[in-house]
Amino acid sequence: MTSQIALYAGSFDPPTNGHLDLVERAAQLFPHVIVAIGRNSARQPLFSVDERLDLLRAACAGFANVVVAQFEGLLVDYARSAGARVIVRGLRAQTDFEYELQIAHANADLAPELDTVFLPTRTRHGFVSASLVREIARHHGDVSRYAPPNVCAALRAKFHAP
Asked: What element of type H or E holds 92?
């Protein structure tokens, strides 16, 4: 295990500019970053895992030290198997902090060798969530301020907007 690999995991359904801001910042802090899509069979995502992988790979193509992957099961197990030492999490609001801190404590209990690093979301992305982007796009609203161009195009195709 090395401190050189950081893991940023989420559902990324869809990837947003807030997600990409965290990827960019993590890529500046750590030599190697894995952006990992967690598979959750209990959820019904808008985009399949393969679609999200394609969207994220295209959106992260400009970051030489970032790879995009997928995993199923416990995040700490995947982090160990990937050789990560750090888990990166974004925080938008105080409610995020309470939830994320609880998860970080559980992860630390399960895998004490892993550390969690919290990065506060930049103000311009503080209110943006994947669910908000999906809802606006579902009603054919403009999400270009909230998601990268490839994601906007995929959302238009999903919802059959011109």
From this structure: none
Domains of the chain: 5-129 (3.40.50.620)
156: left (phi over 0), alpha (psi -120 to 50) or beta: alpha
Q: Which two three-digit tokens encode residue 84?
A: 């990560």
Q: In the beta sheet, which residues pair with residue 115?
A: 86
Nearest to 29 by CA among 66, 76, 83, 75: 66
Q: How far apart are CA 61 and CA 73, in angstroms?
A: 26
Q: Please write the tens of the pLDDT for every residue from 85-101.
A: 999 999 987 778 889 99
pTM across the whole model: 0.93
